[in-house]
Amino acid sequence: MLGGGGVLGAHEVGMLRALDEAGIKPDVVVGTSVGALNGALVAADPAGAVARLAELWRSDVVRTAFAGNWMTRLSTLARTGTHLHPIGPLRQALGAAVGVSLIEDLALPFQCVAASVERASAHWFTSGPLVEAVLASCAVPGLLPPAVIGGEHFFDGGLVHSIPVGRAVRLGAKRVYVLHVGRIERPLTAPRRPWEVGMVAFEIARRHRFAEEMAALPPGVEVHVMPAGVGEPLSPLRYRDLSQISKYMERAYAASSRYLRTRGG
Questions:
Q1: Model pTM?
Q2: For residues 125-152, b (16+ Cβ closer than 10 Å) or e, as one string?
Q3: 45, 137, 156, 162: which is the annotated catalytic residue?
């Protein structure tokens, strides 16, 4: 189960490497937001996913998908009134990275979630065009336009299921490995700046739902929340900053490897 969190999703690559080296192979992959992107590559090529994802994250794909200086972004916002980036570059990057057309053609069962605007509810993509489903799950409000599929508009899956462990359980999973972006390892503090207010409010909502789903786990279900080894504050607002990518991956790999040696293998 791979959660959402923008560029912080590089932590999940380190966790995947630790799981792979421990011989833990997935049977079903569930993802949301950037976790849908990472998860799609895992489901497409389980054996080669770690190497492919590490290469992808260290490449210029993030800058390519979210290209443009502030003037370009403000121009896009002025023209559209709703978002800073067009969705075309991310669609091209995803298509090149995944290489599979339909969800049902993936090597492993895969599902990802997005938030339906018209129905104000979660929508799980279980079949159909893969890239469009992942785009819908990654469509961060304000950064990207909503994805349009079948006349319906979809925003980022993190709005409705940021860490959807409950979905994996409902699919019949008895052992779940939760890969996240590191934020849940840090306690929240009261906001001190205007831009922190919305972030803290969203964190409360996402963590509350995750805690409720963990508390409601049925008997016999084993859940491992992989550690990211986070030591400093993480900001999803720096969504184009690739300077810490390798650090994120290595830190999560080291922390998750230690965890698996003692408790999760």
A1: 0.89
A2: beeeebbbbbbbbbbbeebbbbbebeee
A3: 156
